[in-house]
Amino acid sequence: MTKLASHPFLLGFEQLDRLVERTAKTGNDGYPPYNIEQTSPQSYRITLAVAGFREADLSITLEESSLVIRGRQAEDADERVFLHRGIAARQFQRSFVLADGVDVGEAVMEDGLLHIDLNRTDPERVVQTIQIRKG
Length: 135
Hints:
The protein is mainly beta. It has one helix at about 15-25, and strands at about 35-40, 45-50, 60-65, 65-70, 90-95, 100-110, 115-120.
């Protein structure tokens, strides 16, 4: 695999190679299913299907540049006897790598769907003149 940061015009982008490697290693098994939609030119919404989870069963954290959503259902305290158990109470972890300037907004749970809003801010454009001194 060719490293992106090995190009001579890309200086200081070694972290981008590490980011691509880390993203490729995440073993997302497709659970829970999710959508990513662009809600405006500067905002996005991630929606995860988390039927059966309560707000208390979910955690949303920002770890370095990754948005991490974890779900863990509490075990039933009462001893129920299932004749068939087709709805698994499985835990999950889903990670999304966020670019610089993308901020996490609010998270809303409705009808078994967890919505997380993201907002992108344009970086301030700076032009800097570098003085050349005589050696």
